[in-house]
Specification:
This protein is of the alpha/beta class. The protein is 39% helix and 16% strand. It starts with a strand and ends in a 13-residue tail after the last helix.
């Protein structure tokens, strides 16, 4: 799996922890990650995880929180305004993309193919190239438009993977909940992992 290329988008929905946990898990798998964080995604990282998780020291934060094994992979941070980045083109090899967390606004943009910024454009590329696209919405309750946008994305081939951790694994900490969700995301992207034990029936 050493040369897997995955795009990770982080947008301004609550659940920044899910974003960093997923990023750390992909890096531990040895992935090359193209990372794009929206303006509100940057704000949520700081609001929910503190200054230590600010974008310009995210690599150090991941190593401190999840261990040096994140060094097996590497990530490149792109500006969300850079719609000319390589990942804005279908000619760039890439195995898939996850937007975690995915705001209702970004979900709406993907559903309508708006491609106004790099998160939206990279997601559009995944759909047109028939690559894996995993969207992790976090909103409650949901309006009819929000539900319809999710259906549109699913009809176009995206996996809708709501930030809904299960409790049957008897989580003890918030990190257990984040591990569970990151594990679900890695499975949807085609990775084997040990982020949660397999259900024994
Ligand atoms: C503190 C805070 C929490 C938010 N939580 C959510 C949320 O859980 N889900 C959501 O869809 N939007 C949420 N929003 C709204 C989005 O951040 C807003 O719609 C923003 O324009 C999304 O832009 P982006 O998708 O480019 O990041 C939140 C905003 C703030 C400031």
């Amino acid at each position: 799996m050493g040369d897997m290329r995955i795009v990770v988008g982080v947008t301004g929905a609550s659940g920044a922890l899910y974003g960093v946990r997923t990023l750390a898990a992909l890096l531990t798998q040895g992935c090359e990650v193209d990372l794009v964080i929206s303006e509100f995604g940057r704000r949520l990282l700081r609001d929910e995880l503190g200054e230590a998780a600010a974008v310009d020291r995210l690599g150090a934060y991941l190593a401190e929180r999840y261990g040096e094994t994140v060094g097996r992979g590497r990530y490149t941070l792109h500006s969300n305004r850079d719609v000319g980045a390589k990942i804005a083109s279908g000619s760039q090899r890439c195995e898939g993309m996850v937007i975690v967390p995915c705001s209702m606004k970004s979900m709406a943009a993907v559903a309508h193919g708006l491609s106004r910024n790099l998160v939206e454009r990279a997601a559009d590329v995944m759909l047109k190239e028939r690559r894996r696209l995993v969207l992790v919405p976090r909103e409650t309750p949901m309006s009819l438009m929000q539900l319809r946008n999710m259906v549109s994305c699913a009809e176009a081939g995206a996996v809708i993977l709501p930030a809904m951790p299960g409790f049957y694994q008897m989580p003890k900490t918030i990190d257990d909940l984040a591990d569970f969700l990151a594990g679900k995301i890695l499975s949807a992207l085609g990775f084997e992992h040990t982020l949660y034990p397999p259900w024994q029936g």
